[in-house]
What does this fold into?
Amino acid sequence: MNKVFLIGNLTRDPELSTTNSGVKFCRFTLAVSRSYSKDGKRETDFLPVVVWRAQADNCARYLKKGSKAAISGSIQTRSYDTQDGSRRYVTEIAADEVQFLSTKNDDGKSDDVDFDDLTPIDDDLPF
It folds into this structure.
């Protein structure tokens, strides 16, 4: 079973891109504190996350650097060859679900999210 649940803060603004075939995806890094400390200091992991399709649009629109988010998904590893012929490996979290947990913006005011404006995640459900 390959299932991951994480809660953390974005380290930078999300980056929305499109594949050559027109599928949207969004990348961001999530800073997640470990539940234990080493020498009295809590360690943090910085985990790359990729989100696809309509959820990618929503993440790019409503998340920003510092936003708190919860994600569930799976760990994926892929590889590619560089121009010099060496092979590179990338491990990232492929998020199936993203929950926006931030309730206040930098000014201390509530973020006004228009939920009617959110893009549906899956229009092809049979029910």
